[in-house]
User: Which sequence fits this backbone?
């Protein structure tokens, strides 16, 4: 298996796992909202270029989403640097 095939396979696997996580989160939110004594809170993040735009129902969820965006941005930079070094 060449490097290109390995990156293609790992990229496809990451997209597939991400889709499964989104579907699982949707079902968990759906079933947890069926209980009447629980309050649902959430947040979202849109990254446009290097600028994150975060919004949420409260300050806690917004801070959590921003922390996750920082972690994902650092992970993306690490993967980009590794890919560049391997392709040289």
Assistant:
């Amino acid at each position: 298996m060449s490097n290109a095939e390995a990156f293609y396979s790992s990229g496809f696997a990451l997209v597939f796992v991400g889709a499964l996580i989104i579907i699982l989160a949707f079902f968990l939110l759906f079933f947890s909202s069926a209980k009447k004594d629980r309050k649902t809170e959430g947040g979202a993040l849109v990254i446009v270029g290097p600028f994150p735009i975060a919004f949420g129902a409260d300050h806690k969820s917004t801070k959590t989403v921003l922390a996750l965006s920082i972690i994902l941005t650092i992970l993306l930079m690490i993967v980009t640097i590794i890919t560049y070094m391997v392709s040289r």
